[in-house]
Amino acid sequence: MTVTRIELANHIEAAFTTGPATRDELLAFAAGSHARPDVIAVIRTLPERPYPAMRDLWTDLAHIPIGE
Fold it and tell me: Rounded distance, CA 26 to CA 4, Å?
């Protein structure tokens, strides 16, 4: 099963409620929401930098489809 932007958003969107989120914070939110291992693996490919909003992830994850 392919990881999609929708699936990623379902697991990490709450990370942005208090401001920018780092890769490590996104990983923590994904783990806390019981994301499957493939989702965690995608997040691990992100560079370690703050992401001001979820839409800023898509530059680094352009290969991830929106939906199935």
Answer: 15
How far, in Å, CA of 47 to CA of 32, rounded? 21
Q: How many residues does the chain have?
A: 68
pLDDT of residue 26: 98
Gap between the Cα atoms of 29 and 18, Å rounded: 13
The CA distance from 29 to 27, in Å, is 5
Give dist(CA 3, CA 42) in Å, integer. 8
Q: What is the pTM of this model?
A: 0.93
N-to-C CA span, the chain: 9
